[in-house]
Amino acid sequence: xxxxxxxxxxxxxxxxxxxxxxxxxxxxxxxxxxxxxxxxxxxxxxxxxxxxxxxxxxxxxxxxxxxxxxxxxxxxxxxxxxxxxxxxxxxxxxxxxxxxxxxxxxxxxxxxxxxxxxxxxxxxxxxxxxxxxxxxxxxxxxxxxxxxxxxxxxxxxxxxxxxxxxxx
Length: 168
Known about the structure:
Oligomer: single chain
Number of domains: 1
Radius of gyration: 16 Å
CATH architecture: Alpha-Beta Complex
CATH topology: Cyclic Phosphodiesterase, Chain: A
Order of helices and strands: EHEHEEHEHEE
């Protein structure tokens, strides 16, 4: 089950992403808006692992200080189904945090988040068909300008226990 560390966004960025989720839902397209769980919120995943070391869980392994974040254009990830997301423009602070998280997680880290393989993003919709992905991109592309704000909190998500907590 998924064990992750994620950046949560300030209220302005969170609201802006939620408006995009709502735009997709209002058009009857898949959207993160459909997931009503309390822990479902816009975020940037910085580490995913099969298990997390205790010093990551309690915040001892990685110091976190809030930093500025810019969400750029749309990106489409392929696979069995399609994911639509907003790219996160990499900054020194973001890349440094990612590298420190990978070091702290060690061999438990999942390969697709490794150095040189990670694409920082905020998910807008999952499990889209090709037709839905095209419609979603057309719908959002006319209003997609960069969104600027801050990453305020580093949280741990335990997908097995379905619980979250702040770290760092």
